[in-house]
Specification:
Layout lengths: L5 H24 L20 H5 L5 H26 L6 E5 L5 E5 H13 L4 E10 L4 E9 L5 H19 L7 E7 L9
Parallel strand pairs: 4-5
Antiparallel strand pairs: 1-2, 3-4
Amino acid sequence: MRRIGLHRVLLALVGLLLLALGAAVLAVGLGAPPPSWWIHTGPHDVLLTRSERTRWRGTGWWWATVIGGLTIVVVLALWWLTTALRRRRPTEILIDTGDGDSALLRAGALESALAEDAVQQQGVAHAGILLRGRRTRPTARVWLRLEPGADPAAVLTECTTRALTHARESARLASLPAEVHLRAVKHRAERVT
């Protein structure tokens, strides 16, 4: 049901690459023979030679470019970290009780109730619900597995008019936008004799 985000895959690949590179540097530093693709010849070789370090010293644009490039890399890394750590799912939903006060409803409880209501529909074998967005304006992602022979249009209509409307009204939400994904349950072909 849930897909792994692209940023998590990229983060894992970058992490594996840095881990492999760090292990190779450590191994060469501890005296292991360097591989053929290694840019240095041994453990006492320096990363930058004296001529490489002083090559651009006389030009004024060099250090501004280096510092600017590193600043951009750090800002992008911090942005990536905050987007990876940001919670996109509300844990609670703020409900207007009607008397000027408000109450908190667990998002998991509303997801479970919505899934149970959707499964009771005719033609639905399984339902999965994921609430996203803000706690004052949640949105729903609904995955429905249809039984063989179920009419997708009828199931979608019943889901929106019954299950989603019931959840919206019981939680006293002004609106509950939803994205519904329908998938048929795989079954064996019937034999014709």
